[in-house]
């Protein structure tokens, strides 16, 4: 896959490389600098210790005015190759040195680093070039105090040329190690960035295909991390969208079918009236009644579709209040009293006086749809029973009829729009009543289920949290 510099792969790789470069080079630089400082401090400490010890012996010799002993000490502890030891009087005039060939060429010692401070009775430490050379040296200069008297100045310096050569060798080694570490980390980072970027790119392309209408497809990314979980969620979303699309198409087909039937009936009736049926009053009245019935059916269907659409979109606000379940059931029974009389169905109301926090008008609509459905499929002389009780922190309502029942394979679908299990379930209804009831009950945080036995009847169970 070619690397595009504005891609997430390139950004991840660049981020890794920058962080690795900063980390490795800063760490390498810090280690080198710490080693250098440690060595210089160690050398400086050694010089301070030696100069302090020698100042005692040399101070005693100067106190006795024994310059030969001073010269002996300088010769013993000074080495022309590495260590230079110089002794001065309190005014800064050279008394003895371990490097006489060089020092005889110096006329003014006050310009040598550290000497002005020592003349002023101060101890001075530092790093400077050699007296007549370009090599770096660590030096210490301190006054010689003996028996409370200031008898002279001791200046001791050591070359660090060998250390600098070793340090340069160490620098090359560390830089080489850092570069090798950087290259190894770069290879690992490239692999890691690619392993993260490829699934993201695949999911991006998969989302583009979903947006183009290729619903129901799956993406195969076998990972145990968040990217694998995201791929699983995308697959679930694809299947859900495909299911929603199938339901949408089925819904549109059902709506078209349900609308076409009453419209066709009205059209046929009007055509019959237009070609002469209006001249026969009895036939005309029957046709007009048929047209009115179909228009009422069409009006109910449109109203049910509007209610269902509002509930699905969540734009039907609920006016929640505390309502007596008994009074709500009584209102529903009174509203369908005429239908129960015409169907010859009895209502047995055994609902206690429970309190529900619901929208009373919406719940009344849901109960009416369920009761009308129960009455519709109950034979004359049968009973529709209503019960209410509390169980496991749930308030439960049961509506049981003694009708024809529902086939087991059809039971899971009865709350779907326009669903009818067989021709025996056909009626003058819109096929949306139970679907609307389910949406209303779900909007209140409740659940609705059905249990049925063929030839014995159906039980609708509504549960609300207590």
Automatic annotation (TrEMBL):
Enzyme class: transferase
Lineage: Bacteria, Bacillati, Cyanobacteriota, Cyanophyceae, Oscillatoriophycideae
Coiled coil is among the record's keywords: no
Transmembrane segments: 12-39, 170-193
Protein name, as recorded: histidine kinase
Gene Ontology, cellular component aspect: plasma membrane
Cellular compartment(s): Membrane
InterPro entries in the cross-refs: HAMP_dom, HATPase_C_sf, HATPase_dom, His_kinase_dom, HisK_dim/P_dom, HisK_dim/P_sf, Sig_transdc_His_kin-like_C, TCS_sensor_his_kinase
């Amino acid at each position: 896959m070619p690397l595009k510099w504005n891609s997430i792969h390139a950004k991840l790789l660049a981020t890794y490389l920058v962080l690795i470069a900063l980390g490795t080079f800063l760490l390498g630089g810090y280690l080198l600098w710490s080693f250098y400082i440690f060595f210089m401090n160690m050398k400086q400490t050694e010089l301070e210790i030696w100069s302090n010890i020698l100042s005692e012996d040399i101070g005693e010799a100067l106190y006795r005015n024994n310059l030969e002993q001073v010269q002996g000490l300088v010769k013993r502890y000074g080495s022309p190759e590495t260590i230079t030891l110089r002794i001065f009087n309190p005014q800064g005039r050279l008394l003895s040195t371990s490097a006489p060939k060089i020092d005889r060429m110096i006329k003014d010692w006050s310009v040598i680093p550290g000497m002005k401070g020592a003349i002023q009775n101060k101890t001075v430490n530092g790093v400077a070039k050699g007296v007549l050379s370009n090599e770096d040296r660590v030096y210490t200069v301190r006054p010689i105090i003996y028996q409370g008297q200031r008898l002279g100045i001791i200046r001791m310096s050591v070359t660090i040329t060998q250390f600098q050569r070793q340090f340069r060798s160490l620098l090359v080694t560390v830089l080489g190690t850092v570069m090798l570490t950087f290259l190894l980390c770069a290879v690992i980072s490239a692999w890691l960035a690619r392993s993260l970027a490829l699934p993201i790119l695949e999911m991006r392309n998969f989302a583009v295909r979903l947006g183009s209408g290729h619903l129901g497809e799956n993406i195969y990314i076998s990972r145990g991390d968040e990217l694998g979980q995201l791929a699983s969620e995308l697959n679930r979303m694809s299947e859900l969208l495909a299911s929603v699309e199938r339901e949408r198409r089925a819904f549109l087909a059902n709506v078209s079918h349900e609308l076409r039937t009453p419209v066709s009936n009205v059209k046929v009736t009007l055509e019959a009236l237009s070609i002469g049926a209006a001249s026969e009053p009895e036939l005309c009245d029957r046709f007009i009644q048929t047209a009115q019935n179909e228009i009422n059916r069409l009006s109910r269907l449109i109203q049910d579709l509007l209610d269902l659409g509002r509930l699905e979109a969540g734009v039907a606000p609920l006016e929640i209040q505390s309502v007596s379940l008994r009074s709500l059931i009584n209102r529903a029974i009174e509203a369908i009293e005429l239908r129960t009389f015409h169907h010859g169905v009895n209502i047995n109301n055994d609902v206690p006086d429970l309190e529900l926090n619901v929208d009373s008008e919406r719940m009344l609509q849901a109960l009416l749809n369920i009761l009308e459905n129960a009455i519709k499929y109950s034979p004359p002389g049968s009973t529709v029973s209503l019960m209410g009780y509390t169980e496991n922190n749930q308030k439960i309502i049961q509506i049981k009829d003694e009708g024809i029942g529902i086939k087991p394979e059809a039971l899971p679908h009865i709350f779907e729009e326009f669903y009818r299990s067989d021709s025996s379930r056909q009626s003058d209804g819109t096929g949306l009543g139970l679907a609307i009831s389910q949406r209303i009950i779900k909007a209140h945080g409740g659940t609705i289920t059905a249990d049925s036995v063929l030839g014995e009847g159906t039980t609708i169970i509504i549960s609300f949290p207590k």
